[in-house]
TrEMBL record:
SUPFAM superfamilies: Class II aaRS and biotin synthetases (SSF55681). Pathway: Protein modification; protein lipoylation via exogenous pathway; protein N(6)-(lipoyl)lysine from lipoate: step 2/2. Residues 28-212 form the BPL/LPL catalytic domain. GO terms for cellular component: cytoplasm. Transmembrane segments: none annotated. This is BPL/LPL catalytic domain-containing protein. One of its GO terms (molecular function) is lipoyltransferase activity. It comes from Xylanibacter ruminicola (Prevotella ruminicola).
């Protein structure tokens, strides 16, 4: 699997990485591609969701949290620089096989770290009975795109308030309720987030494709046309 790398580390909006997935799927002649990314506080909601029903837009505006719509299904997700976003683009259109392959890959890395992880029928990755990673999927002709949010850490106040319409003041009980359902990877390993990124790449990828400046411009055009409106 080839790692798709960017020539610079400049911060990008979440919409850029969605456009990057689509560009890679349509234009790179590589059967298996993978990349990781991180974003400033953002909310991303699924293909079949209505933003007003899923996102506390007033809270997001007040706290500078960007909101984006993705082409894959699944639920609403809050992401920030303490999360790790994973993207795989691969040949084929077998949904079940692609999901299973991706989840197995993530579990392999976690097991290598000494973390006992399992998966569910909904393609979530669990540590014990708590969710640490969720996945979503969509297809383009002959290509499959699967992406995931790995919870290394996060801003709990933003996570709860940004994707749950309701009182903006976070109650202690609300935090406890969410923490009963999710877990942070930092609580199960001594590795830093950067060390985990290195391990993921070394475990899953056997080469690199560095995008050119022209390809970056092409991705930015897709971003402008399809993901920033």
């Amino acid at each position: 699997m080839k790692y798709i790398a960017l020539p610079t580390n400049e911060p990008r909006r979440l919409s850029f990485y969605l456009a990057m997935e689509e560009y890679v799927a349509r234009n790179l002649n590589e059967p298996d591609c993978f990349f990781m990314w991180q974003v400033e506080p953002s909310v991303i909601y699924g293909r079949n969701q209505v933003v007003e029903n899923e996102v506390n837009l007033a809270y997001c505006r007040e706290h500078g949290i960007q909101v984006y719509h993705r082409k894959s299904g699944g639920g609403c997700v809050y992401a920030d620089m303490d999360n790790l976003m994973l993207s795989m683009i691969t040949d084929g259109d077998n949904v079940g096989f692609t999901f299973n392959r991706f989840v197995t890959m993530v579990q392999l890395v976690l097991h290598k770290m000494g973390v006992e992880a399992t998966s569910t029928t909904h393609n979530d990755i669990m540590i014990g009975d708590k969710k640490v990673c969720g996945t979503a999927f969509y297809q383009l002709p002959g290509r499959s795109i699967v992406h995931s949010t790995m919870l290394y850490d996060t801003n709990m106040e933003h996570m709860l308030n940004a994707i749950t319409p309701g009182p903006e003041k976070l109650e202690k009980k609300g935090i406890q309720s969410v923490r009963q359902r999710i877990t942070f990877l930092k609580d199960h390993t001594t590795l830093s987030l950067d060390e985990i990124k290195t391990m993921i790449r070394q475990t899953l990828c056997d080469g690199e494709v560095m995008l050119t400046n022209q390809q970056i411009k092409d991705i930015e055009q897709i971003e402008s046309l399809k993901y920033n409106n």
